[in-house]
Amino acid sequence: MTVVKTSMRNFFAHKGRMALSAVAVLLSVAFVCGTLVFTDTMNTTFDKLFAVTSSDVTVKPKDAKAEDTPQNGVPEALPTSALEQVRKAEGVKSAEGAVSSMNVTVVDRDNDNVGATSGAPTIAGNWTKNDLRSMEITTGHAPRGPTEVMVDADTADKHDLKLGDELRTIAQTGDFKAEIVGIASFTVTNPGAAVLYFDTATAQRELLGETGKFTQFNVTAADGVSDARLKRNVAEALDGTYKVQTAKENADENRKDVGEFMNVIKYAMLGFAGIAFLVGIFLIINTFSMLVAQRTREIGLMRAIGSSRRQVNRSVLVEALLLGIVGSVLGVAAGVGIAVGLMKLMSAAGMNLSTDDLTIKTATPVIGLVLGIVVTVLAAYLPARRAGKVSPMAALRDAGTPADGKAGWIRGLIGLVLTGAGAAALLTAAAADKASEGSLMLGAGIVLSLIGFVVIGPLLAGFVVRVISAVLLRAFGPVGRLAERNALRNPRRTGATGAALMIGLALVACLSVVGSSMVASATSELDKTVGADFIVQGNQRIVPQAEKAMQDTPGLEHVTRYKMLDATLTSPDGKTDDDGITAADPTYAQDVRRATTEGELSAAYGPDAMSVGTDYAEKHDVHVGDTISVAFEGGETAELKVAAITDDDVAIDQGARYISIETMRKYLPADSVPPNTIMFAQAEDGQAEQAYAALKKSLDAYPQYQVADQTDYKQELKDQIGQLLNMVYGLLALAIIVAILGVVNTLALSVVERTREIGLMRAIGLSRRQLRRMIRMESVVIALFGALLGLGLGMGWGATAQKLLALEGLNVLDIPWPTIIGVFIGSAFVGLFAALVPAFRAGRMNVLNAIATE
């Protein structure tokens, strides 16, 4: 009980010093809990939607999957005759046919896309009784003819749509216009989809290409008939021809697809939270190490009056426990706030999430509390153990905590071994012949080198801080030398403080190098291999009407079609793979200059000919002249002769197998031919600018497609990677904030530790301004020390990762020096910011009181 009272007294006596450590725990726990609450809420939203919209039994095409779109872009369909069979099955109360397609784009009169922009789908279909489970018509009426459409209220509000407005729907089967005659509101939370309803005949004709077909049947059970029994009866009536699911099975299938995506988000965010926890550990270790050092005499008195090592140890751990509890409880509450904030942010981006569905599982606060408390107590263990080793006589002489020179050498040796092992692993990864093997060594190298740098940090601090000081601080005379001395006074403390910042900046540098190298490699590859003037692609496969508009554009020498086909290939050695094949026009050999190791690519566009990549050729011992069996999905099996083997040392179309459009048409029925994935165009000589403008004008009616020349394409690629990196940097910002708190805490406690020294310096003539400058310089040096280690380490990781990417065709290593230099300079400002409060407090000290401090 005495131990607890002592711990409570010390905790509240140093509450100001504990606050920053508590904030670090709070932020880390909040990120974890916020992630869990946010992802659980999203899962709840989808679960409710799927549960409500699933009929008692659903009938779909045999191989239909929620995430699949057939290669021809038209949804798989069921005949009306099958619907009549379902209606006659025992236990069926009612059955209706539904039409639904997500392969559509919808634009308004101004040709602006009114579909979902948040990654959620745009869904077009017919209005059915089953839709009344999740929707209600709030304005107007349901569509009654071929020129009428009803939209969901969220889409109408977002794009300012009202009754009487005209919408154009672009589907694989053609374009059609309709006037808004109704607006329906979701009775459950809409996670962001844009939904349009037509009458059944119009939906069948315009979305499926013919009437009399449906994409699924919604079956309702008669009173007293279970879903399982109804499923058996319907399956028997259909002789097992189609996929029959109960409401639960249908909802589970949909939930699985969403769940996989949500897991990626959840574990990625938890990974960044883990980084923040790791950085927080350094802050907590530093805080308790300094508090123990400042209470050396107090600990000695406790030992002198009978306290055992165990009691002293336990006293420090109880303080850590209190810190962990306070920080974790506040973190759990803050986590809920973060989740709500993320929901609001997602709603602003187009994904509507209601706080009514806010889901806080029992496990979430438990995980937050346990994680925060355990991490805090473990981080405080070493300082607590060190406190227990303080002997009464040494403490009463104010000798401080025991300094173990042997332990320092052992630590240095372990650090050198770990760093060397990490460097060896990175070199092995860089020399790997296969990316899969090298990635394992890269991971090991990153972990070992990071731990090695953390362990060896105190040794590095002595050298690196002197170098930084020689460059930056010597110009400030005695004040600069004092700042250098203070930073070197306790290398272990400086090393731990710098290591916290090092971790976040190492990841920033690594990702910057990888991202910049990817852009540079892709740009170089484009310059080297892409001969086409223009590239057209979008978030929907290129519909025939857009293809025709492109082909009719004046000023183009040629237009190249590019289609990806589902097919199973059987090589001469009898082995099969289902990675598919690519069909293109012969002009593709001009648009993308692929080097070949055998034969010529142009020959692969001859009748019954094809090409393969070098990896495939080596794996199956294939040479020019060999025959490969190609079974086209939805078509026939062809025996195609290998006319070329293309070099796979590229980033574009690596591993692609090519055939001509004509060969495809020979073995694939017209209704199974897929739309173009991408298209290329070459301008006539001297007509590049005019052709570019004409092509953009031709495709104005199809805003889902982007027309890009090579400059546009490179910029788009750079922007995409830049957006991804910015998102990652945003997540890493939490770890960097915690690291900044560590610098602040270290300086604040250091000022308290040096109170008497500061008083003496002020007494012999050091001005307040000079004192504040000294503390700011000390902070800048510590921040730059961490930045220098982090950036150096991160660039090493990034360079190694690029060597692995080179195996996938990304051959250019590009160090983004502006980013690296900007981060380094930014670290100096971080140091200045971190020193503001400690320097201000130091400057306000009363000189006499400071000198009199024990």
TrEMBL record:
Where does it localize?
A: Cell membrane
Annotated protein name in UniProt: ABC transporter permease
Entry keywords, A to Z: Cell membrane, Membrane, Transmembrane, Transmembrane helix
- Residue span of region Disordered: 59-79, 569-588
- Report the principal subcellular site: membrane
Q: Which GO terms describe its cellular component?
A: plasma membrane
Query: Domain named MacB-like periplasmic core: which ranges?
Result: 19-235, 497-696
State the superkingdom: Bacteria
Q: Name one GO molecular function term.
A: transmembrane transporter activity
Q: Give me the stretches of Basic and acidic residues compositional bias.
A: 59-68
**Which family is it part of?**
Belongs to the ABC-4 integral membrane protein family.
